[in-house]
Amino acid sequence: MFFLANQGYRCIAHDRRGHGRSSQPWEGNDMETWTDDLLTLIEHLDLKDAMLVGHSTGGAEVTRFLSRHGSSRVSKAVLVSAPPPCMLLKEDNPEGRDISWFDATRAGMIANRAQLFTDIPTGPFFGYNLPGATPSQGLIDSWYQQAMLCSLKAVYDTPITWQYDYTEDLKKIDIPVLLLHGELDQIVPIKAAAPLAVKHLKKGTLKIYPGGAHALPNIAIEEVNQDLLNFLKS
User: Fold this and answer.
1) Phi-psi region of 11 (alpha: psi -120 to 50; beta: other; left: phi over 0)
2) Catalytic site residue from 19, 169, 181, 185
């Protein structure tokens, strides 16, 4: 956002309910409510010709938003390390994750979320568990801090949305969509994600980052910034 704002673009980020400085209601931690919240914000600010950018769960949220609410106020979208079309292992989705992975993530939050929220950034999120990686303690600490400030109910409910099938949502999107995904993403395995998602889009463009982890906006800052700027200008 800092980079794009310095290029003259208006950049807006919202804290999803249960996250950041937003309130922490018990209910509504689901895609339908999240996308309705986003629509409320967009209409309140009277945004037009916007480019929606979503990372990880945010990418799924962008996908469901466009399917649910259309693109009358949105001209482009970017999905970064996003779950669509479907992360869940099924007979017709052999590259997805077994349901046990989602269940274990949620169980870990109840058992000891502080430890879980330490293990994720020190390992798979930034790819710091891969050979040759140089961990940044600052990024690890920042991720931990943000996660621990979230509503436990919100983060506990969130993995359910990773199991959704977004195939039909993708098919409804009629605007240009850029998909960025890391080759070595350990959170959203690439074989079940972007290369399949782009096939369902009417105007999709896929870029794979060789050796890239899940946290592309943090570990490939300059490249992601430039890709976003180029897409905005295209």
Assistant:
1) beta
2) 185
Examine the residue annotation and report whether 185 is marked as an active-site residue of this protein: yes
Residue in this structure with the two tokens 């946290």, named with its chain if needed: 215
* 220 touches 80 (CB < 8 A): no
User: Which structural domains are found in the chain, ordered by start?
Assistant: 2-99+164-233 (3.40.50.1820)
- Mean pLDDT (10-residue bins), the chain, 234 residues: 96 96 97 98 98 98 98 98 97 95 97 98 97 96 97 97 97 98 97 97 98 97 98 96
Q: Report helix angle 152-162 to 57-69, nearest 10.
A: 70
**Residue 114 identity (one-letter amino acid):** A
| Active-site option among 56, 181, 200, 227 | 56
214 is catalytic: yes
